[in-house]
Amino acid sequence: MPKLGLSIRGRKLGGGGGDADASAFMTATGIPNNSTVYFSGTPQEITGAGLWTAIDTLVLDLKDAGLWSDLQAFYPFVGGTASTHKWNLKNPLDTDAAFRLTWGGGVTHDRLGVTGNGTNAYGNTHIVPSTDINGDSSFGFKIGNNSNSKSVMGSILNLSNGEYMYVYPRYSNNALFTQYENVNYTSGSYSNTDSIGFYRFNQLGTAYKALKDNVLKLNRTATGVYPNIPIALFCLNTDNVSFADFSDFNATSFDFFTKGLSSVEMTDLNTIKNDFETALAR
Amino acid sequence: MKQLWLDKMYKISIETANLLKGKTFAKDMIFNPVQDVNGDWFISKEEVKGNTNSRYKDLLAGLELAEFVPTKLELGF
């Protein structure tokens, strides 16, 4: 098991841009590795070099924890614009195949990450669950505001008799979700009166775990088929025809999609998330 | 408490919706016209305010806000 805390703290004293993967991502964003000031006068004020250091630390922590190689997509949302927020940390190419996000509708991009508007904002991940995350899987996101809203992400093929994958983090004070299930299964759910937190959903075989921060919220068993249409952020992609059930959740930084994780890896990821978000003061 | 399912958006014709759908209104952001429960088409305040595409400036200038009642999926929960 990696000594995450020690490695994270030690590296924060060093300069950024040392890791090749981190450098590739930051180069794609166009954020300069210098004294250019971002978000001046706010609690999130930081230099371009500071952002490079934060991403460098993040990538090295993910590698130390053994999480990097199995990541399919990871969206750190740094820099505060649609153009800096669209990149996949794991594969920062400007293509759908690299899971670069496409932003549509009224998405707000700022120092806190990305925010839906509850009416037509979406991010298309271009991640097709049936082909890109089929098998054991884990995904998650951080929500920074407390809102009673609709779906923060999802993909549904054939609404009446199909394949579902979605998360409603706080819908009438319950978190509702499916990960790998069909219409014959009722959504997993747990009471959730505050949407703020780091949500993770993990599948190993037919065993599912839902965590919020480091609290196990639900264990369940289910089977099904992953949808074969891309996952959308801030809403559901329904039948690849339209988006629906838009939400206004804020700052869903630290969105990730990866293989199924062990309990230790889930805890490590939470530690890495906390350090990364602390470095960015969000 | 915020009213969950009602909001104001800019009402547009179906022709305008077809024209704007998928077009860039700012760097790396595209229009997403949506239909409400009454079949009317809308775009958001953020798209109108954030538009930097001169091609659509005049078109957006004349739009008015109207009540938007979103469709609701029936997911069984």
Description of the structure:
The complex is a heterodimer of chains A (282) and B (77). Chain A is 21% helix and 30% strand. Chain A is of the alpha+beta class and 282 residues long. In chain A, strands 4, 7, 9, 10, 11, 12, 16, 17 and 18 form a nine-stranded mixed β-sheet that branches. In chain A, β11 (174-182) and β12 form a beta hairpin. Chain A is globular. Chain B is an alpha+beta fold and 77 residues long. Chain B has helices spanning 14-20, 45-50, 57-61; strands at residues 7-12, 24-26, 29-30, 34-35, 41-43, 65-68. In chain B, a hairpin with a 5-residue loop joins β4 and β5 (41-43). Chain A binds chain B through residues 81-83, 86, 102-108, 117-122, 147-149, 156, 159, 164, 166, 171, 176, 183, 186-187, 189, 236, 238, 242-246, and chain B through 1-2, 4, 7, 9, 22, 26-34, 42-47, 50, 68, 70-77.
**Shape annotation of chain A:** globular
The structural class of chain A is: alpha+beta
What count of structural domains of chain B? 1
Largest sheet of chain B: 4 strands, antiparallel
Strand content of chain A: 25-35%
User: How many H/I helices of chain B?
Assistant: 3
Query: So what's the CATH class of chain A?
Result: Mainly Beta
Radius of gyration of chain A: 18 Å
Task: Work out the strand percent of chain B.
Answer: 25-35%
Work out the number of β strands of chain B: 6
Short description:
The complex is a heterodimer of chains A (282) and B (77). In chain A, 54% of the residues are buried.
Task: List the topology elements.
The complex is a heterodimer of chains A (282) and B (77).
Chain A: H1 4-11, H2 20-29, E1 37-38, E2 46-47, H3 48-64, E3 73-75, H4 82-85, E4 102-104, E5 108-110, E6 113-115, E7 122-124, H5 129-132, E8 137-143, E9 153-157, E10 163-171, E11 174-182, E12 188-191, E13 197-204, E14 207-212, E15 215-221, E16 232-233, E17 236-238, E18 242-244, E19 255-258, H6 263-279
Parallel strand pairs in A: 9-17
Antiparallel strand pairs in A: 1-2, 3-19, 4-7, 5-6, 7-16, 8-13, 8-19, 9-10, 9-16, 10-11, 11-12, 13-14, 14-15, 17-18
Chain B: E1 7-12, H1 14-20, E2 24-26, E3 29-30, E4 34-35, E5 41-43, H2 45-50, H3 57-61, E6 65-68
Antiparallel strand pairs in B: 1-5, 1-6, 2-3, 4-5
